[in-house]
Amino acid sequence: MKSRMAILQLKADKSDQRQTALIHRSQEGDEQAFGELYEIWARRVYRFIYFKIRSVPMAEDMTSEVFLKVWQKIHQYKPQAGAKFSAWLYAVARNVVIDYYRVSSREELSFENLPEIADLEGEEPYREASHIESALQRLPEEYQKVLRLRFVDEMPIARVAQAIKKKEANVRAITVRALARLRQELEKN
């Protein structure tokens, strides 16, 4: 057990060292290093924002805004004792969410208002997944492909656009239409 914990600690230390190196390279203007930081953190930042605003397109846009702000200010980032890059990154994300609500004059969702987490035991999740898969297969091929790339493969809009050779705005529109159509198919059964 101790050796397993030691191995996990070594992996965490190596990951922290790699991230620190990427931060330093990004501070020197290395776009590729910043791209790697983006790959490490984008999905987590997106989820953080999404659970605050509950809108896929807005969460995607706001995630992009967060990373643009981080890129513009990364030279100002100075790690302090006990403080991690993730804390600074999430502070930027939180401020973007606050600005969104300030501008749109909506109330911020609290954790108390989030939907309950589904019970993942028993056969219910499998039946639900099967039901969703069945409804998904009744959609046009383009809709299926976009939804699978976005939500199964968890690809960002930009990568989906590259994969299907369409503009990002088109991918967003297709995603909205595909989700609406999937909802209709799910309500039929």
Automatic annotation (TrEMBL):
Keyword Membrane (UniProt): no
Full protein name: RNA polymerase ECF-type sigma factor, RNA polymerase sigma-70 factor, ECF subfamily
Residue ranges occupied by any RNA polymerase sigma-70 region domain in the UniProt entry: 37-106, 135-184
Gene Ontology biological process: DNA-templated transcription initiation
A Pfam family the protein falls into: Sigma70_r4
GO molecular function: DNA binding; sigma factor activity
Membrane-spanning ranges: none
UniProt similarity note: Belongs to the sigma-70 factor family. ECF subfamily.
UniProt cross-references to InterPro entries, sorted A to Z: RNA_pol_sigma-70-like, RNA_pol_sigma-70_dom, RNA_pol_sigma70_r2, RNA_pol_sigma70_r4, RNA_pol_sigma_r2, RNA_pol_sigma_r3/r4-like, WH-like_DNA-bd_sf
UniProt keywords, alphabetically: DNA-binding, Sigma factor, Transcription, Transcription regulation
